[in-house]
Structures
1.
Amino acid sequence: MGNDKFESKTPFKSFNFLSLLILELFSVDEELIRWGWPEDVWFHVDKESSAHVYLRLRPNETLDDIPSSVIDDCAQLVKANSIKGNKLNNLDVIYTLWSNLKKTADMEVGQVGFFDQKAVRTVRVERRVNDVVNRLNKTKVCNFVFPFIIRHITRLFTTKGG
């Protein structure tokens, strides 16, 4: 499974969002931090180890454009994929734009900081909602990070004229 990641398109298709669930077990999030897009939104359980969920917005959309139901779905995914957080009630999930993620050479795998702490938002998750997690897991597709690198490079050439 080495560089597996999970790509889920179906639950958010009415909003034209793309959600990427990254399991830290595979350290794939390091590559996605490196190859992220400006419209990617990063989700994580606050102060606990958890999966990283990336939500791709349409160009020129902001965090304010994300429906609360989609934020709740992403929060449920990170909670469900946190060993400790999955067992806790009333925990916080933080999210911010990819461009706000700060990664330095001295940080551990999976560890990130922020350029602007004020740009980090918080949503409270009262409890795990199994119906939501099961619905989202049914849309899971295993893939590798390499296609995302190709998409990133293709986007650079397309948007900047090569």
2.
Amino acid sequence: MQAAPIDTARPGRLQWGMTSLSPSSSDAVPLQVAIDGPAGAGKSTVARQVARTLGLTYVDTGAMYRALAWSVLEQKVSPDDADAVCRLAQSLSIVLENKAGGVRVLADGQDITPHIRTPQISRLTSPLSALPCVRTRLVKLQQQMAARQGVVMEGRDIGTVVLPQARVKVFLTASPRARAARRHAELAARGIDCSLADLEREIRERDLRDSTRDTSPLSAAPDAVLIDSDLLTADQVVARILALAHNIAGDQADAAGDQADALPRSITPLLAP
């Protein structure tokens, strides 16, 4: 399986989260922003905007699990056959492409972006994502993506399992009723008719499955900042996350300055950008 975000770090630019004192240092560590939360909390909308503002790569981990669910249906693999699902997860090529209009999802070279947001795919994704072999495979790919560039990664186990070392961690939540209403409006805009009551029931059921599964359960990292979006707009949530990122950058800059001050005076100029 293969995931390929298109944005890469630009050499010579000081990026958010660099721990080195020089923009050109090979030891530079780009910022990792982990956004977790339950289904329908608005993670994708917020994460895309944060990534765009900070110039980082947006990684929609949920799209990867949805791509597997779509492939299970397309290849007529029984969702109850864990071994068959695991074999498919190992062989399936998944590519994420960040485009101006959103993330393009390809499975074995086929663009499946319009097909992975249906209620049927949503219902199937949760049990498949609970399989340890599936999570192990996709988590490894997600970590590889974050190791080579700055990312804003959203999902359910990013701050706890995928990127436990992320400097910015957010747990974005909202009430099941509010999340169901958002998902209902999103589906209606795409011409998909569904019951608001059914959506709320499915969201509650998914919350229970996601938070009680044995492998990578949905939970807030101890050091994550909790944001309840019930009474907040997407722009307000984005502003709060950007403020966290700026605070982190400021703290690192202060630490870098302290390190430079502690060095012999003759060496300090060598560390200046």
3.
Amino acid sequence: MTNQKGSFKFQVSSFKPRAKSQEPKLGSLPKCTTIFPYERHLECRHPSMLKRILVIVIVIVVVLCGLGVARYRDCHQRGEAFRSRVNSIKHAAELRLPIGATKEDVVHFFADVNFPLHFDEVGASGTIYTTGCSPFGCAKDSAMIQIQVAVDSKGTVQSKPLVRGGYTDCI
């Protein structure tokens, strides 16, 4: 669009107001005009598209919540089993390893609760590693149960047994 002299000729369109018949009706979709062709406004999309997006978002939220509830339920059951096991070992140790119990009683107790037994100068001890449901701040659900019994040089129990359970990877 150049004239003969090489200069550019611009065509300016004049502004024409809409006729009343072209006005959008109530309840109709808004006209979407943007400066940039890639710019899209949410209110300019078709209502059925918005409904689809909303349904997809709701389905994703429900699925994620369901997975969270299932994980919580499984974790809670593992945690209860861990606490129950620690309490039952603690109760059994108090009953079967009173002060004055022999080395043979200590060996049989550790074998019955499936704990490895180590004797050293302080006493007898054993530790196992298991899983539970770790509290917030712990990386994984790995846990340990430890039994310690003070014994003399003959293996006779000198004090009440100590049973501890805890999580191994907490801050």
